[in-house]
Amino acid sequence: MPISVEKQMHNDAWVIKLGGKMTAVDSLDLHAKLLPVVPEDPQLIIFDMSDVELMPSLGIGTMMSFTRALEAKGNTVRFACLNDNMAEMIKRCRLDSVWDMYGTLAEAEKGR
What we know:
Structural class: alpha/beta
Number of strands: 5
Strand order of the largest sheet: 1-2-3-4-5
Strand content: 25-35%
Order of helices and strands: EEHEHEHEH
Radius of gyration: 13 Å
Distance between the termini: 32 Å
């Protein structure tokens, strides 16, 4: 199943839920799928990764550039609910020292 992108408001944060199994081809479309779901000027964006089965390095690179652009505008970006496979991939890419990752949405909202 190609990657899906959904947006919802959760308390004071915009949650962007990604889901599915991403291929390299889907990675090329990820940026285009993310642009319309990001609100105009969100203070806090949480990427809910609970339903992401697989994301190749190209997809992770897309996420990296996308989150950097958001942070450059002064937005706070956090990641929540990574399954074991995604958490391992993030660690292999050494992004666990770059991205703020949390076990639950509530923890991500609080920043702890």
